[in-house]
Amino acid sequence: MAKKTFSTIVIKVGSSSLTDPKGKLDLPNLKRIASEIAELIKDKKKVVLVTSGAIVSGAERLGLGKPKTIPEKQAAAAVGQSRLMRQYEKAFEEYDLTVAQVLLTRDAIADRERYLNARNTLSTLLEENVVPIVNENDTVAIDEIKIGDNDNLAALTASLIGADLLILLTDVDGFYMKNEEGVPYLVPEIKEITRDVEDAAGHPSTQLGTGGMITKIQAAKICSNAGTHLAIIHGRKESLIKKIINGEEVGTVFVPKASKLESRKRWLAHGLEKEGMLIIDSGAESALLKKGKSLLPVGIKSVKGEFSAGALVTIADESEKEIARGLANLSSKELSEVIGKKDVGEAVHRDNLVIL
Q: Is 150 marked within a binding site?
């Protein structure tokens, strides 16, 4: 990767990088990562840390082994989050750095006002030279408000603050694909997330984490729209963070799109949960993609799902390939009644629509 100037950086530490072979919190590696972050801050970089490890830490303290039920996981998270923060606080104190705990759930991202509040809080902490330490609020999160994995949480955080770079510390050296003989090889740089790249991501395989390569590809898509580079590097090898920032070829770097979405469009694209789908005809597709128009009911062929007015919906072509997302002006019932009709207002206004 050619050397870039990265001033605001999000670093995500996965469970595999914070857990030793016995399943306990790996304090030596945590301290090493903290020391490398402290070096970045000394070099005038702004750094947000997104961390896993709360459930592992709590389960260790409670003697639960690997928690299986939701109450066990939430209890472990409640105990583990404070233990984890205490270790980070002690690690960063050695470098005269203050840390701040920031716990997020999907609803904090989905609500526009709370989204802006979170952004303002993180920006203020960074201006005050504080290290924000972000995690999902596993103690109270349920399926409806869970982001689900810290790869996506880190990408949403990077998008939220307009970071230049997201670094995912994991248990592999980068992203691998296979050549024609079926031999895996490390891909140093990916400029476009193609179907081949998505197929190579396979399925989640990490035992300690909740992600795998699929969630890293999802994170890369979020970062691409935000103009944020994403790097996957090994979380147990020294100085790789510095090497990535210096432009050295380590791990895998996903290069973002040349033109990034503005903040509100990023929120529309990735901050909300999709509640339905609008299948549109070729004329409406052309109006959206080539002319920047609003979506009108006359161009809608079918409505899928049940949703209220104001819900985020997928806008798909006739093969059901997603081309855009937007906030519906009408409920699914109301839209179904005006499909194909003219002069009945807009289904999705262009200001509330983002092309993907």
A: yes
